[in-house]
Structures are given as C-alpha cells and as structure tokens.
Amino acid sequence: MRLQHKTQFLLVILLTVVSWQYAAAQAKKPNVVILATGGTIAGAAATGTQAGYPSGAVTIDAMIAAVPGIKDLANIKGEQISNVGSQDMSFDIMLTLAKRINELGARNDVDGIVVTHGTDTMEETAFFLNLTVKTDKPVVMVGSMRPSTAVSADGPLNLYNGIGVAIDPNAKGRGVLVVMNDWIHAAHSLTKTSTTAIQTFMSPLRGVVGVATYGKNDFYNTPQWKHTTSSEFNVANVSKLPRVDIVFGCADMPADLIDASVANGAKGIVIAGVGNGNMNKASLDAAASAAKKGVVVVRSSRVATGTVGRNVEVNDDELGFIASDELNPQKSRILLSLALLKSRTKDELQNLFTSY
Ligand code: GLU
0.85 exceeded by the pTM? Predict the structure, then answer.
C-alpha cells in the first residue's frame, strides 16, 4: 500500500471510531422534549434594562441555543405548542399540551418532558397538567421573570435546571413540577407571590419539593395528593370545559356579580372569599340561590395561605357549598372545571377538593 493510501485508510478508521463513540455517547444520554408555550422566558426587549417587553417573541430553538452546556445533559428536541404571554393561556392550549404530553409520555424514546411557560398563569397550567397527564415520567415546567435580553436573565439557568430535573429518576412519581430560581415546587402547592421579583414562586403551606443546583437535585418531599397516573381525570376526548367563574370577595361585596355569573351560563362559581372563604350576607344569599339552581359554588380564599374548612364559619351543609381546602381560587377553578365534565354529587365534589 502506498503511503498516501495508508494515511487515507487510517483516517477513515479514525473517523469511524470517533463517530461510533459520538453515537454511543448520544445513545447514553436521556431524551427530553421541550414543549414551548411562550412567556417571558421567550420574551425579548430592545435593551438589557428595559422593563417593558413582549412575551413569546423567541422560538424554542433560539432558547435552547442560548443555554451553554444544555446539550451535554440530554438529547433535546423542541416543539412550539404556542407562543403567548401566559395571560393569554387558554383551556384550548392546556388541552393541546396535556394530549401531547400523553403521547410523548407513552413513547420509549422520551425520558422527560419540559414545558416552558409564562409565570402569570403557570400555577394553573401546572395544576391542570398534574390532573390530566397520564405518565409518571417527569413533567417539568419552567419560566422566567426577566426576558431573554435582560441583564442577568433568569431563563437560561431555569431551563438548564428544568432539564436537570426532567432527566432525574428521583423526579418520577412526584406529579408535575415547576422549577424556578433553583427551587422545585409541586403543582398542587406553588403560587406566584411577586409581580416582578425572580423569587416569585412559593409553596406556602407545604414547602418546596426540592432544590435544583446546576443540573443536580436534592428532593425533600413527595406531594401526597392524587395526580397524573392516579388521577381520574381524562381529557383524551375533551375539547371544551364548562364555564367556571371566580368572584373576588371584599368588604361590601356586590352580590349581583354572582347573579351575573349564573345568568351568563356558569356551571360553577369559585368565591375568592375573605378570610376562611367568607362573604357578606347578600353574597351568601346569592351564592345559596345559585347552588339551589344547580350551579356548584366553591368557597376558596383570597388569602395567600391557609385552608378553607368546611362548615367553619359558613354552614356549607345547609347552603349547599363546597370548601376548597388548600386550593386557591385559580386552582379551585381548574379542578372544578374538570370535575364538572361529568355529573357528581356534592359529597363526591367535596372529596375531590381534599384528594387533589
Ligand atoms: N405576562 C407574562 C407571562 O406570564 C409575564 C410573566 C412571565 O412570564 O414572567 O407570560
């Protein structure tokens, strides 16, 4: 063999070995699909210090490309489900997400799923998915408080940590998780507590599920409510949810807001009551009359933490109400919307609020 041929031959062998090693390394990495819905994590401002910006301006591929080292953690594929600020999140998009996650969760070549989402309604989508996805593979939501163009944008690390949780076998079976600012929250318990601070999400009653640190995780808690594979809710054939309104309680609350909800076709009303799910006498009467007409009335609270107990200050048995237990008004609305997909007794409905 001439020297030139020998060199070419050795080069071919070398390239083959290198590409085998590369393929083997890829095959060993877990596979994660990112479903992007929009939000500030995909927002872009004109400058790094501008407070105003449009949400949902950056595509999922650009978001992945902006996170150094993310592809060392996992083989990542991105899909754009929507690109909206989460104030425009809708049940339509939530249903599309849940159905897509259920398809992906059933596949052998998917180990975890990450959903990028705006923070405004993140807790609602997280809870909706917690009740409707049918997989114990990690489903992890991430967002950011600062747009991608900001000085110290928080999105890239949240996304990195979100992937780190999605590939962690210890994340399995804990329901839908939200990873923001290094904390891992359960869908049942988290809530947004600051309009602008990056440490916005808290889980006031139950505490965090764990902590994520540059792709490594410590888990402290396993949420005890029913979720995902133990949930009875199935949206496979659902394309629309019944209307459930939230009426906000306050001093001298006008009771005709409850009447307006009923007149506009609400099948359920959640009262974001004062204190322990309270409302004034006029509103109690309007709510009791709604309940008599078959509208399901759930008493929740506008207070950020604590439970709303049955028959504590309000006689729920007599007036035909449901108490929300630990669920805040926005999560009560999600549970009630799903619950009203079929007919249930008051006892069955009350049970849902203490099981989910
Ligand atoms: N309104 C935006 C949204 O929810 C901003 C909040 C955020 O993503 O941080 O998409």
Answer: yes
